[in-house]
Amino acid sequence: MSIYAVNKVCYRVVHEPELRQALADAPEQALRAATPPLSEEELQALLVGDVGRLSKLGANHFLLHQLGRFRLFGLDLPTYAERIRMAYRPD
Amino acid sequence: MAEIVGGVGVPHTPHFPGIVDRDEPLAPELRRLYGAAARHLRELAPDFLVFFTCDHYNIFFVESVPIFSIGVAPSAQGPSDYRELKAYTVPIASDLARHIQAEAVRSGFDVGMSQEFEFDHPVTVPLHFLTPQMDVPIVPVFVNGLIPPLPPAARCYALGARIRETLTGMPGSARVATVASGSFSLEIGGPRLSATSHTGIPDPGWADRVVELMRAGDVGTLVAEASEERLTHAGNAAGELLTWIAMLGLVGCGPAAFLEAQPEFGHAFGCWRAGGPGRPM
């Protein structure tokens, strides 16, 4: 499945308060119920809030940052920003 | 015939209403800048507003992403994406919107028709400051400035000009103004964010250049330079400039009557009167 599945989860986070609650209460269960299905790599990255990895996989940043805005997967906006910075920091 | 009386361009930063409500340090500047645009619109006394906006992945993302679409519902609520902001029901001039959409399609513009939707903050934040009574019906024109591939700037300008032709060819004496909503350089959540925020201004030089060309009324050069590559370089929200270019196509005039940038945000506030001097395309 393409990265669209991740983008769609982020899109739904903005518009579905019940999904936000489910992701806060039982994140893996809620993610495994997502359609279209997430790949295992995408699911594991989401669960640990690895937005740097998801960015490198091609996730849309406009949508991805909503995970920080809504404080999901251990993120908030400063944490989100720092993880994106780390992912693109020159070696 | 309907009369095109002028237009404004403003940003739609979702934090601005709260900053003003809480009277934070930036509030006086925001009141002054949005106030200038609101005063300009009041002086133009429009019966309708053609409102150019970019969907922020809220309306079309799942179903289909139109390059252009016109909202024809009788009204729409919003903002759908920032429920903490004041909610509005925005009146839509649906008959006029249907006419503009049909005429655009007949003349070769493949413009979609949106019949049921909620507005997101790029519509409600400007209207919150410009027409908070929601007493001027709008014709919402969605320009895909955020989800690649972006339409060419020349096509956006031409769509604005086509809408102008439609309006001026109509019977009656309605006064029509236009609004553009968006930034010139802005990155949201991407790798070019600033050191202190989840947003950034990747190309302040481009934002300066846009303001310089608008100040000179040199829309032709602006359109020529606003390539997809240039806009992409300026940030993942920099395509919002396309709403301003469409607005300028509709107004069909030269230099702004008022133009002031907020360089730290990569955007500006501008006011135009129809029939002004300059070098339109």
Written overview of the protein:
The complex is a heterodimer of chains A (91) and B (281). Chain A has a single domain, classed as Dioxygenase LigAB, LigA subunit (Protocatechuate 4,5-dioxygenase, Chain A, Orthogonal Bundle). Helices cover 67% and strands 0% of the residues of chain A. Chain A contains eight helices and no strands. The N and C termini of chain A lie far apart (30 Å). The mean pLDDT of chain A is 96. Chain B is built from nine helices and twelve strands. In chain B, α5 packs parallel to α9. The longest helix of chain B is centred in the first third of the chain and has 18 residues, at 27-44. The mean pLDDT of chain B is 96. The chains are: A mainly alpha (91), B alpha/beta (281).
Question: In summary, what is this structure?
Answer:
Chain A is an all-alpha fold. Chain A has helices at residues 4-15, 17-25, 27-32, 40-47, 51-56, 61-64, 66-69, 77-88. Chains A and B meet through helix 1, helix 6 and helix 8 of A and strand 9 of B.
Summed up, the helix count of chain B is 9
Taking all residues together, what is the mean pLDDT of chain B?
96
**Poorly predicted parts of chain A:** none
Strand content of chain B: 15-25%
CATH architecture of chain A: Orthogonal Bundle
Q: Structural class of the helices, strands and pairings of chain A?
A: mainly alpha
As for the CATH topology of chain A, it is Protocatechuate 4,5-dioxygenase, Chain A
Q: Nearest-angstrom radius of gyration of chain B?
A: 17 Å
Which radius of gyration of chain A do the C-alpha atoms yield?
12 Å
What is the percent of helical residues of chain B? Answer: 25-40%
Distance from first to last alpha carbon of chain B: 23 Å
Estimated helix fraction of chain A: 55-70%
User: Largest inter-chain interface?
Assistant: A-B, 21 and 19 residues
